[in-house]
Amino acid sequence: MKKIKYLILGACFLPFFTSCESSLTKPTASGRPYEMLVVVGDSLWQRPAGRALFDVLDTDIPGLPQPERSFRISQTDPARFNQILNIFRNIILVDINKKEYTQTKMRYVRDEYARSQIILHIQSPTEEEFRQFVSEHSQQIIDFFVRVEMNRLIKQLKDKHSVMVSEMAKNMFDCELLAPDEIQSYKKGKDFFWTSSNSATAMVNICMYSYPYEGPQTFNKEYVLHKRDSVMQKNIPGSQPNMYMATDTMATFCRPISVKGSYAYETRGLWYMENDGMGGPFVSHSRVDTVNNKVIVVEGFVFAPEKMKRGLIRRVEGALYTLNLPKEKVQELELGIPEIEISAKKQD
Prior knowledge:
Layout: H1 2-25, E1 35-39, H2 42-46, H3 48-57, E2 72-76, E3 90-96, E4 105-110, E5 118-124, H4 127-136, H5 138-159, H6 163-173, E6 185-189, E7 192-196, E8 203-212, H7 221-235, E9 245-259, E10 262-273, E11 279-289, E12 294-303, H8 310-320
Parallel strand pairs: 1-2, 1-3, 3-5
Antiparallel strand pairs: 4-5, 6-7, 7-8, 8-12, 9-10, 10-11, 11-12
Helix pairs in contact: 3-4, 5-8
């Protein structure tokens, strides 16, 4: 009876250990952040359907002083999609087959060939339907992969972040915030702090401030930028009395977004120092602290003259998503596309 009991227990635990072993033996996904591999036929890639997908991935990041692409794009034919290429971190698998599909769909799978991997399957009956679909869902595709990369960055920040910034966010605003660990300098003001890496060539900065919540009218471009300019003028002066940080309102974009299932107001664009030559991109989230009835703003901005700024601004933008208001819990960003457990090739 004891032997039978042990055999039964072994059978129960075998799938668990097999699953763990399978996960541990997978390689770590390759590639740099925001690199994309599109698996699609060579000839299809050059036709309107393939060009439509390329145009979606090749769009510029909004709010930067010079054009910079959203993703680095590579393409391979399915015949060349082997064990070397299938461990790429971000993959789009295109499958157009009239016999298999009656409508166009997007679904994704995690860690199919490698750990920390995302594969987005786009399946369609015809090339024309595929072209129309990716054009109509361009922002959803872009947001999907940006959120995937943001989640990866958030996980890194959990393991390695600036303790100084976390302590100030907790002590001053009763909030949790994870900022890149290279940020070590700070300046405090009334309901405000500014932290910086103080690098001479590629400076990254995180600011946090608050003001009373006055209802839904609080969240519009004019109101938010007026608050930003008044706070920054007071707290971030230049080297001379007539120098201070300001917002280039003509190059600034605002939109409502969802953070942790709650309303947030995203602002991104360009800042500059009045009567000085400094400037660069910024991005901020304005959210309502319902416990204390005030708006909490967390902002990242970059100063990196003559350098590409995509990686820098996205690094501080990822930190914004780590903000936990009082009584909030840490959670991943929702990706907005249905998830599948196995490859689409195995679906009915």
